[in-house]
């Protein structure tokens, strides 16, 4: 604590003579484009070789049907869902609910109580993300504060990548190779989706 | 409009044709041009070496030479930037009072709003806009606006268009290896291109690139933008 | 070997065949991508001004805002430490490792950890340190320092990395990628780069799982939320700060921004300036502080803060864009600067952080083209800071030959007739250019222009009427 006070004292002394500069206030970004269309364009552009996909479905039932069709191996493959904290490396799939989406940067926003709860977006080969269309904002400036109870926010814009060797883009580096985004019109019921998607009574269909 | 022509010292000394061409362009554009014979140097060499007191003496001399005009015009982005951007920060008891100073292209485009000078130059030209024109005067587009209207001239873009030529005043002799390496890279990018000449806004950049090209027998005909714009009248 | 002056290091760097080719290619690509992204970003210039104002506002109220950050970070569960210099920072890091019985550390990319020379200190204490950023891992295995603020292995060709991985990671090239000769054929470069990346991924996965402590820097510290923000593309930082039990983040106090609402502006500016991306693949805004430590570092920064002319250098967000456009950097790379930070911002910062004796020549090694100032996303007039360093250096020096020459030059400037007369010596000087050091340094590799028959002002005087008429009219 003594060192902290010492540092603060140093800063108080050093900044005393600096000109007083006001905070510029919020930054306003007028943008007339359609956020949903832009989101689709930007999400797809982040995975030019099919590493990112984008789909909109009508309601929770349609979403379930779509996921069952796209992931027929759902009961055999290893999944990590939502905030399961156990972590072998790596799972085949992760299923996550996004709290917000940002159109301009094609960003998926996860609000979690602990970073460890975002593993379903991290230690997986393919990251499946579901959200409601009304969670789309235009720019990062318009993102609301963290969800109640959340202390950490993770922004995901495209698959894990590196270009450290001769600027050659390589996907993935350490995280997921693929991100699939499914938006549902109306309110998403993530809990119900998870229990129905993994319901053993559907085993025969898997 | 009454303007004073400032011809930077090395242009006066080594490239007098550029001075004559600038005078012709300005007169053809309807300006009343005044050339103070007591003009010398804007003071950039000592300024770039950190010798600000000597630079201030140069600035005082400059200010005394160029009074009573609406504008000062010079065929060098670098010297114009010295006056516009750096004179205000020079130390001294009294504030410096200098009429608004412009690089030639900047003056023609922003002040006179006159883009077409009736010039003709047949061929393919590379363009090198001096770095101070782009990064200090923020007038990097002005030469293009003028050159696009020169009849017969085709502009050849190069990967190295925005790269520094490596001159940098005293830098060119204090760090000759770096200076030469920078210029050589710029020239190397020209090699695969099909061009007839290089048009520049600053004769100092032209001197660096031409000096390098001549030493290695790479043909490079350098023209100052003023010479191009005066083309049809000489 | 570390050269004493930039001149020495530049000579060494320039003589490395292919280095400048690699650097020009990589940096130009980053700049082109940045420019393309900005075209779609109508408010870019306004955003830069906004960011500069936020940063300068933060610096003038840094004591209050940092106190607020510390209080909120502690409330979030972080353990906050302060280190006045590098030695203290290393001591704190080692103490945390000891307290938790740590023998294996995984690291996310952090320039500040380079600044405090953390890795050698940890290794000396018997701790295994693994850099998890691919570029950092490569330079770590080579025993080198990062060659660029954001792209540590920017100076290396695939061939060099292939050799390195064969020697150090027992890497074997898959049969379908084998090639003849020393140079990789162009068609295979990206396939081999990809396979090398996957080899590093396999190597690092084991290191992630067995590390007991993750070490990171921070891109931003948010005062009003007590959270720290990390940007990356690979997910190695997320793994390093999520999987191990303990996380230690180290950051200069200059990483502070006032509010969560300010973050968006910097998230717009940083990745675009750095790589041309609209946003990095991952941004972690970490506020769950249990098991996490933050070390706040001064190490010369508060002294710079007190420098009212230069304190805006502390607003740098380490995007590396100034290096990417810098013709000096493109020729000599980060290792030419002889310090942790490189490029134009390094040339302006190092004399502050590392002393004028060691780094006083860096501000002189610039053509002052100003490309750095034009690209800087937080609007630091970097080349003007270099100019001011030159002024300071001259003031600190006694009388020198250079000063006497400048004084004589100023004397001539004030006397047009003498100035003109002095210029007539040019043809003489030209013919003796081998004897005059200044001209020799020009003419060893460049021709000098010929002296024309008459100067422009002589012509004007001869013509007479041009000036005279106007003189009469006045």
Mean pLDDT over the full residue set of chain C: 93
How much strand content do the residues of chain C show? 5-15%
Distance between the termini of chain C: 66 Å
Number of helices of chain B: 12
Largest sheet of chain C: 6 strands, parallel
Shape of chain B: globular
| Uncertain regions spanning at least 5 consecutive residues of chain B | none
The strands making up the biggest β-sheet of chain B line up spatially as 2-1-3-4
Low-confidence residue ranges of chain C = none
Which class best fits the helix and strand makeup of chain B?
Answer: alpha/beta
Largest interface: A-C, 69 and 96 residues
Number of strands of chain C: 10
Query: What is the level-2 CATH architecture name of the domain at 44-301 in chain C?
Result: 3-Layer(aba) Sandwich
Strand order of the largest sheet of chain C: 1-10-7-4-2-3
H/I helix tally of chain C: 25
How many strands of chain B? Answer: 8
What is the oligomer described by this structure? Answer: heterotrimer
Round the mean pLDDT of chain B to the nearest integer and report it. 95
What is the name of the CATH topology of the domain at 44-301 in chain C? Rossmann fold
CATH class categorisation of the domain at 44-301 in chain C = Alpha Beta
Radius of gyration of chain B: 17 Å
Write up what this structure looks like:
- The complex is a heterotrimer of chains A (206), B (234) and C (474).
- Chain A is of the alpha/beta class.
- Chain A has a single domain, classed as 3-Layer(aba) Sandwich (Rossmann fold).
- Helix content of chain A is 22%, strand content 23%.
- Chain A contains four helices and nine strands.
- Chain A has a five-stranded parallel beta sheet with strand order 1-9-6-3-2. Chain A has a four-stranded mixed beta sheet with strand order 7-4-5-8, with helices on one face.
- In chain A, a hairpin with a 4-residue loop joins strand 4 and strand 5.
- The radius of gyration of chain A is 21 Å and the shape is globular.
- Chain B is α/β, with parallel strands linked by helices and 234 residues long.
- Chain B has two domains: 110 residues; 110 residues, Rossmann fold.
- Chain B has twelve helices and eight strands.
- In chain B, helix 5 links the parallel strand 3 and strand 4.
- In chain B, helix 10 packs across helix 11.
- Chain B is globular.
- The two termini of chain B are 23 Å apart.
- In chain C, 54% of the residues lie in helices and 10% in strands.
- Among the domains of chain C are: 258 residues, Rossmann fold (3-Layer(aba) Sandwich); 58 residues, no CATH class.
- The model of chain C has no long low-confidence stretch (mean pLDDT 93).
- With 474 residues, chain C is α/β, with parallel strands linked by helices.
- In chain C, the strands form two sheets. Chain C has a six-stranded parallel beta sheet, sandwiched between helices. A four-stranded mixed beta sheet of chain C has the order 8-5-6-9.
- The interface between B and C is large, with 73 and 68 residues.
């Amino acid at each position: 604590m003594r060192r902290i006070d010492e540092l603060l004292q140093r800063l108080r002394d050093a900044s005393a003579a600096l000109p007083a500069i006001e905070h510029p206030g919020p930054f306003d970004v007028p943008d007339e484009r359609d956020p949903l269309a832009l989101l689709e364009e930007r999400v797809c552009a982040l995975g030019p070789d099919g590493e990112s996909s984008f789909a909109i479905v009508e309601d929770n039932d349609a979403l379930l049907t779509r996921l069952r069709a796209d992931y027929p191996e759902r009961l055999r493959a290893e999944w990590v869902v939502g905030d399961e904290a156990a972590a072998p490396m790596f799972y085949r799939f992760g299923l996550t609910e996004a709290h917000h989406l940002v159109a301009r940067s094609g960003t998926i926003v996860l609000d979690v109580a602990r970073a460890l709860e975002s593993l379903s977006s991290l230690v997986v080969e393919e990251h499946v993300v579901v959200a409601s269309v009304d969670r789309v904002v235009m720019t990062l400036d318009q993102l609301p504060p963290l969800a109640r109870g959340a202390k950490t926010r993770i922004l995901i814009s495209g698959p894990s990548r590196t270009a450290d060797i001769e600027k050659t883009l390589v996907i993935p580096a350490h995280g997921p190779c693929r991100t699939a985004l499914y938006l549902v019109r109306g309110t998403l019921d993530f809990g119900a989706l998870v229990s129905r998607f993994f319901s053993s009574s559907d085993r025969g269909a898997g | 409009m009454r303007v004073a022509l400032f011809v930077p010292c090395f242009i006066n000394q080594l490239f007098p044709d550029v001075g004559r061409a600038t005078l012709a362009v300005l007169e053809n554009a309807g300006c009343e041009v005044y050339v103070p014979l007591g003009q010398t140097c804007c003071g950039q060499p000592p300024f770039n070496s950190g010798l600000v007191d000597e630079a201030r003496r140069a600035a005082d001399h400059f200010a005394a030479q160029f009074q009573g005009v609406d504008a000062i015009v010079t065929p060098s982005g670098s010297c114009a930037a010295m006056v516009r951007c750096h004179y205000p920060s020079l130390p001294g008891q009294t504030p410096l009072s200098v009429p608004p100073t412009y690089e030639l292209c900047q003056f023609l485009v922003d002040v006179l709003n006159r883009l077409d000078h009736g010039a003709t130059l047949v061929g393919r030209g590379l363009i090198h806009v001096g770095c101070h024109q782009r990064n200090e005067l923020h007038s990097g587009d002005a030469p293009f606006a003028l050159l696009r209207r020169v009849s017969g001239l085709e502009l050849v873009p190069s990967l190295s268009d925005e790269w520094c030529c490596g001159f940098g005043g005293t830098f060119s002799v204090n760090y000759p290896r770096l200076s030469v390496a920078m210029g050589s890279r710029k020239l190397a990018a020209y090699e695969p291109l099909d061009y007839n000449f290089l048009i520049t806004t600053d004769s100092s950049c032209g001197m660096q690139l031409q000096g390098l090209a001549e030493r290695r027998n790479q043909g490079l005909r350098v023209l100052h933008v003023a010479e191009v714009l005066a083309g049809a009248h000489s | 070997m570390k050269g004493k002056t930039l001149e020495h290091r530049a000579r060494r760097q320039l003589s490395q065949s292919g280095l400048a080719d690699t650097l020009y290619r990589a940096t130009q690509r980053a700049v082109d991508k940045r420019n393309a992204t900005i075209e779609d970003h109508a408010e870019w210039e306004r955003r830069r001004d906004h960011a500069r104002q936020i940063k300068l506002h933060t610096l003038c109220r840094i004591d209050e805002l940092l106190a607020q950050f510390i209080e909120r970070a502690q409330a979030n569960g972080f353990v906050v430490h302060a280190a006045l210099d590098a030695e203290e920072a290393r001591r704190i890091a080692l103490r945390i490792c000891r307290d938790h019985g740590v023998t294996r550390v995984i690291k996310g990319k952090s320039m500040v950890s380079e600044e405090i020379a953390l890795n050698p200190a940890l290794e000396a204490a018997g701790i295994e340190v693994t850099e998890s950023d691919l570029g950092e891992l490569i330079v770590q295995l080579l025993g080198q320092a990062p060659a660029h603020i954001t792209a540590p292995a920017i100076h290396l060709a695939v061939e060099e990395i292939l050799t390195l991985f064969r020697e150090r990671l027992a890497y074997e090239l898959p049969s379908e990628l084998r090639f003849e000769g020393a140079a990789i054929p162009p068609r295979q470069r990206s396939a081999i780069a990809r396979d090398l990346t996957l080899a590093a991924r396999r190597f690092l996965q084991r290191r992630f799982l067995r590390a007991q402590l993750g070490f990171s820097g921070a891109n931003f510290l948010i005062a009003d939320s007590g959270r720290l923000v990390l940007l990356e593309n690979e997910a190695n930082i997320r793994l390093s700060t999520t999987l191990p039990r303990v996380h230690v983040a180290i950051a200069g106090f200059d990483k502070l921004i006032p509010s969560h609402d300010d973050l968006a502006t910097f998230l717009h500016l940083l990745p675009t300036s750095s790589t041309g991306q609209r946003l990095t693949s991952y941004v972690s805004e970490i506020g769950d502080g249990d098991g996490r430590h933050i070390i706040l570092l001064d190490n010369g920064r508060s002294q710079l803060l007190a420098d009212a002319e230069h304190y805006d250098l502390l607003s740098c967000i380490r995007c590396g864009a100034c290096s990417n456009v810098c013709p000096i950097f493109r020729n000599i790379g980060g290792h030419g600067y002889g310090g942790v930070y490189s490029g134009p911002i390094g040339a302006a910062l190092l004399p502050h952080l590392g002393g004028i004796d060691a780094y006083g020549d860096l501000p002189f090694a610039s053509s002052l083209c100003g490309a750095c100032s034009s690209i800087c996303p937080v609007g630091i007039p970097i080349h003007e800071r270099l100019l001011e360093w030159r002024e300071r250096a001259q003031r600190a020096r006694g009388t020198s030959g250079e000063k006497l020459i400048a004084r004589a030059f100023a004397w001539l400037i004030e006397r047009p007739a003498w100035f003109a007369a002095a210029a007539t010596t040019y043809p003489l000087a030209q013919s003796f250019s081998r004897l005059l050091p200044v001209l020799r340094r020009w003419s060893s590799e460049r021709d000098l222009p010929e002296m024309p028959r008459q100067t422009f002002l002589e012509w004007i005087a001869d013509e007479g009427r041009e000036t005279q008429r106007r003189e009469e009219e006045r």
